Amino acid sequence: MEQKQQTLPARKNIALVAHDGKKAALQAWCSKHKDDLSRHTLYGTGTTGHLIERNTGLEVIKLLSGPMGGDQQLGAKIAEHEIHMLIFFWDPLASQPHDPDVKALLRLAAVWNIPVACNEVSADMILSSSLMHSELERTLPDYEKYLATRQVNL
Asked: Does the reported pTM lie above 0.85?
């Protein structure tokens, strides 16, 4: 598939997700970086979003909880270019009943070339990057061109 360039805005839409065993860690990370995060629009799966909002005062657009479809809602927003960055504190030591949804979410983040952090250190590095608060060019699949080509060949 051909590629195209797209600009991520300076004010980013950031998805915040955490498995149960990592919710406290994500909430603490958000508290630590409250000033930086407040400069962006935050989205979260239901339980995680409520926890962050209640304990940090940050405004979070809350979707369904992950197992109830929230991971898939975020994946759709990534595919529609509404989410520009994913912070997902996942628990590699715990079995997750909605593991296929989690893998699909991470796959979509890779397909659409958005920054992903899966732990505190990688989230710190992304947030401290000079690119965090500025526009950023990314390469992504040119799906519209692909569809136009497919329609001509049918």
From this structure: yes
